[in-house]
Specification:
heterodimer; A: about 300 residues; alpha/beta; TIM Barrel; 4-stranded antiparallel beta sheet; 10 helices; globular; B: about 400 residues; Elongation Factor Tu (Ef-tu), domain 3; 2 domains; 21 strands; about 25% strand
């Protein structure tokens, strides 16, 4: 008997995407507002969040809210009311990475489950056990880990963990407005909504999306992570959450990706041998779905690091 | 009304034992160093336990403290030996460790409960509730994120009774420290474990993607896209940080030269002491600013302390013309009867060179080299050999640890 049932998570940019990705097979949807969340796929006001929660609960799905900005004093003024409202509206969890959250939850007696996601800083199991003891309910692991390290962490942590399995990853965040500053320097007018990317010198096929929001400047990976053909390794290790990052992608694309991962996960759990037969086909499907310029890769999961 | 203010600590970097000695001799109240494990400056000299012990003994003579940076973001395999390491640091007499990863913070608390842990800037602490969290964890000091303003520091100090350490001078990450994996992504060098390739300072092509195609913005401009930060300097504004309640004023640069460390420490020591001798009538002295520029490696900025940095706080266009100085020689001895100094050569110098001697307490004077002998008393034109011992006739008294610099 196997009670293991991984959660397939996906980000959504608007209510339509929430609905379509849930229908496509996501178990949980991640949403937020850039005022409190880092790199949200789209801005959800509290009223939209309430609607998304109700919609997801009606489908027996979960709603997680990204509250993972790096907070300054100014954020702390509105944060208690925001977290209180989220709990009142029945959110299934918040995702945060700033220690102030532990303090505020304690001050207000909030019980909303906390997924701890400090981006690059969740890299070993002793650290995750430390946060678990301090009130974290689930750990979102850093993307800069090998799959072996992820599995080792799973074997040694006392709480559920989630990892990203698909989509772009953040590789840089500055509080400065680094695109606007450059436009100022070259005396060119700047429009924030313009889609932009940078290329490494002499690496013609590199493609790093870069954008600014109220949290500063963000640079995203040159490749989209695609782990659909390694789900056997991930699922046999009983990783609890598998996340699809859908930012800067169309709803059609994300829906297609969720359908494929849903099918792949369910296939592995019911018939591992059939998964082995079909995995190359799923990967091929993703390859054909990829937007121009977006290569696919496996991120840090199989990469040697030097330090 | 007289405001009671405690003199903040001046905290300097020390990449090796010699730099430690100079930093302390020139006025640092504390230095931070790296050991052979758990530190972020893989390429800095870094201290063996024996060197740390010698550094601690030296520091004690001046009433100074030694901190050890153990600020990596550890992966599973990096944590072996942490308990023994912290125990050893405590036994050596290290006053505190600077850490960002809770696994290491906890290991230190378990292995050496009396060894202070300061939370590193790598943890990007930027609000008072987070500071309060660490206070409740028994942490006596946090190093704030470089993204906080003077006003935010003041608010944090009002809300939480904890020591605040803030950077006053040196190179900066342009990202939130610890939240950048450019280097790891592009070169497989993990910055959070000491391997930073400084990818933010590289040149990139920037494109706009629109319905009518792709536009190469940087091709139409005089300069490619880059994200290189100017260096931080609060030389003109130090009283603002003191009055905001900062407890430790930190200089960056474990990789920097002895000349850099001595010069920068000397200036900030002078400013702090001048301020505290008469806070109400404190006035900035242009000589301090001029002196700081002798050690500057990039243009200088106040970063986030007063406003969000703009393009003027980044390195664009041609670099500013910064006068470059060499550390030409170290004074080992001085004979007051003959006014001859014994000088160990650190960079080539010779007859006719315009040099500047300087020492602690902002002591300094310029002169031309008129007479120069080698170790055996033979007159020579130039001191060409590294570390050779020379004798130089000097215009004013000097002493051991004074330095001689020369413009390049």
């Amino acid at each position: 008997m196997n009670l293991y049932k991984p959660e397939l998570l996906a980000t959504a940019k608007d209510l339509e995407e929430v609905k379509r990705l849930a229908q496509a097979g996501a178990d949980a949807i991640l949403i937020g507002h850039q005022q409190f969340g880092n790199r949200v796929a789209g801005d959800f006001e509290l009223s939209d969040i309430k609607e998304a929660i109700d919609l997801l609960h009606a489908m027996n799905k979960k709603a997680y809210i990204q509250v993972n900005a790096i907070f300054h004093n100014q954020h702390l003024e509105a944060l208690p009311d925001y977290l209180t409202a989220l709990e009142r509206d029945g959110v299934d969890g918040i995702i945060a990475g700033d220690q102030s959250i532990f303090q505020i939850k304690r001050d207000l007696n909030l019980t909303t489950p906390l997924t701890w996601n400090p981006a690059t800083l969740s890299t070993n199991y002793q650290t995750l056990n430390y946060w678990h003891q301090r009130g974290m309910d689930r750990a979102a692991l850093s993307n800069e880990l090998s799959l072996d390290a992820v599995i080792e962490i799973k074997e040694h942590v006392s709480c559920p963990i989630e990892i990203q399995v698909h989509g772009m990853t953040c590789i840089f965040q500055s509080k400065r407005k680094l695109v606007r500053n450059y436009y100022q320097h070259i005396d060119k007018s700047y429009e924030q909504d313009q889609v932009r990317y940078i290329k490494e010198d002499k690496k013609a096929d590199s493609h790093y999306p870069i954008f600014e929001d109220i949290n500063g400047t963000h640079i995203m990976s040159t490749e989209d992570l695609v782990m659909i053909d390694y789900l056997d390794l991930i699922l046999s290790a009983q990783i609890d959450g598998l996340k699809i990052e859908g930012m800067m992608k169309s709803t059609d694309y994300n829906e297609r990706i969720v359908i494929l991962y849903r099918e792949a996960i369910d296939t592995y759990l019911t018939d591992p041998e059939l998964y082995q037969i079909k995995k190359a086909g799923w990967k091929q499907s993703i390859y054909q779905t990829q937007p121009n310029q977006r290569k696919i890769g496996t991120g840090f999961y199989f990469k040697e690091q030097i330090y | 009304m007289q405001i009671e203010r405690r003199k903040p600590e001046l905290l300097a970097p020390a990449g090796n034992l010699e730099k430690l000695k100079f930093a302390i001799h020139y006025g640092a109240d504390a230095v931070y160093i790296g050991g052979r494990q758990f530190g972020l400056r893989a390429k800095a000299g870094n201290f063996s336990f024996e060197e740390m012990a010698e550094g601690v003994v030296f520091a004690k003579k001046y009433g100074a403290k030694v901190y050890v940076a153990t600020n990596i973001i550890a992966h599973n395999e990096n944590l072996a030996g942490a308990h023994d390491y912290f125990k050893k640091l405590y036994d050596i007499g290290i006053s505190a460790v600077i850490a960002a990863d809770p696994a290491l913070i906890q290991a230190c608390h378990e292995a050496a409960p009396d060894l202070e842990v300061h939370i590193s800037t790598q943890a990007s602490i930027a609000n008072w509730k987070t500071v309060e969290y660490w206070k409740k964890e028994g942490i006596p000091r946090v190093v704030l994120a470089r993204e906080v303003s003077v006003e935010e520091i003041r608010q944090i100090k009002e809300k939480v009774d904890i020591e605040i350490e803030a950077f006053i001078h040196g190179a900066m990450c342009i990202s939130y420290s610890g939240r950048c994996v450019l280097s790891n992504h592009m070169t497989a060098r993990d910055a959070n474990r000491g391997g930073c390739a400084q990818s933010c300072r590289w040149k990139y092509d920037l494109f706009e993607d629109g319905t009518d195609g792709t536009v190469a913005v940087s091709d139409q401009a005089d300069e490619k896209y880059t994200m290189s930060s100017q260096d931080l300097s609060m030389v003109e504004h130090l009283p603002d940080l003191i009055e905001a309640g900062v407890d430790s004023l930190k200089i960056e640069g474990r990789m920097k030269s002895i000349h850099y460390v001595a010069t920068v420490v000397n200036v900030y020591r002078k400013i702090i002491d001048t301020y505290f001798s008469d806070p109400e009538n404190f006035q900035l002295d242009q000589a301090w600013i001029d002196e700081i520029w002798k050690a500057a490696q990039r243009s200088l900025s106040t970063a986030f302390y007063y406003h969000e940095p703009t393009e003027k706080d980044q390195l664009f266009g041609k670099p500013d013309r910064i006068p470059k100085y060499d550390f030409a020689g170290l004074v080992l001895d001085y004979d007051e009867h003959t006014q001859v100094a014994t000088i160990q050569q650190r960079n080539s110098f010779g007859i006719g060179d315009e040099v500047e001697f300087f020492g602690p307490n902002f002591y300094r004077f310029k002169q031309k080299i008129h007479i120069l002998w080698d170790e055996n008393g033979e007159a020579i034109d130039r001191a060409k050999h590294a570390m050779m011992i020379t004798k130089v006739k000097v215009d004013q008294p000097v002493k051991y640890y004074d330095m001689m610099r020369k413009q390049k």
